[in-house]
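User: I'm curious what two different proteins look like when written out as structure tokens. Can you demonstrate?

Assistant: Sure. I'll show them one after the other, since each token string lines up with its own sequence. Here's the first protein:
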Amino acid sequence: MIEIKDVTKVYNGKAVPALNGVSLEIGMGEFVFLVGPSGAGKSTLIKLIFCEQKPSTGSVSFSGKNISSFSEGELLRHRRRMGMVFQDFRLLKQKTVYENVAFALEVVGTSPKEIREKVPAALAKVGLAGKEKSFPAELSGGEQHRVGIARAIVKDPLIILGDEPTGNLDRDNSRQLMELFAEINAGGTTVIIATHAWDIVDRMKKRVIALEAGQLIRDEQRGTYCDEY
């Protein structure tokens, strides 16, 4: 599904590459944790998979097609098949829970009828039925994160990407959030999560891809956060 081949990413003004010669493959329906210290290249890898950025050298391919060859229309359609969950929620404060989730469909031209069907279903899936008219400021941090997940899954994506999604949550909310990701993955959606939450990674025993200084140093099925375990 996703093939990253000999990828190096260099940002302007930076002497050290954010990613340096990284190669890996992620299959459809996998659950993958990206781990490593700050600055290891996790967020850069997420941005490349999301097609927010392109590699300096090497290639990122989806189903055999290099993203660098995507037309503007193909790139837009591809991004529609992915859902992104952020650490800082990025909810629109002036919009209700329903409106925040509906907005993800409105921007891609979904019909009002389909929006009315999909938004309540997505909110129910993340345990927020009955919160449709609430505003973000009226929700707990964990509930705001669930709105972010509902916004990501309402498009029925092939891939869910999370960039430190539990970074601002306490342990209980982090555990609940990861359990929700696992449920989504069980339905066939590929889930890729960049995280520092070592306890969750160790408990869930999913595939672990470890980065350090822009290089892939470990790739294990049913892995742990640190290879010393």
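Here's a second, unrelated protein for contrast:
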Amino acid sequence: MNDHDPAAGTATPAGTAGTARPGSVLAVMAHPDDAELWAGGTLALHARAAEVTVAVPRNTADRMAEAAAGARILGACLRVLDPERLAVELQELLVELSPEIVVTHPPADVHPRHRRVAAAVLEALPRAVLATGCPRRLYTCDSYNSLTMDGPVRATTIVDVTATFDVKLRALRAHGGTQPISEEFAPMAENLGRLWGARIGAAYAEGFVALPVLGRLPGVTRL
């Protein structure tokens, strides 16, 4: 996501502005509503110009139907993973899609399922990178009230999602049949969006932390 690109949002921290178009994104999440909750605005921005895929472990039929609906609203494709073969299927998916960017949960997330999915991503990543050269960038997303087991989320990149925050909320509400969206998750998304936005002078934003890919960190200030 390029700095100062009105169509793509604003990414911070400070650095040289980029001009490249957004790259393909694979968001690997633990629950059917996680992509929308933690990264929905950013995924919707990327989907305007690049391929976006959301991958989640198989859940109940009603939850997966909601996941499909949410992904459609974001402009993303949904891929369903076998929870018993998570790391293996993730490696196969990474090789198949060769995404430029991968987004997942913090390794020290407060939710145990989030941690397991993050661990599976980290396990699958090395062979995929050696086979394809991708992903080039790896980011972890936000968590409940921006807290992890290691303390507050210290975002290295903050994306202005003002232009797609309504899309994020519509996609999140697609999960209202099974989840406490109106009562809990939508208000939290609103609060976190405003807090991250205040840090870059935007109405709404989402925060991400860059992790090294085989010892390399991204050299750009965009996702």
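A detail about the second structure: The two ends are 5 Å apart (CA to CA).
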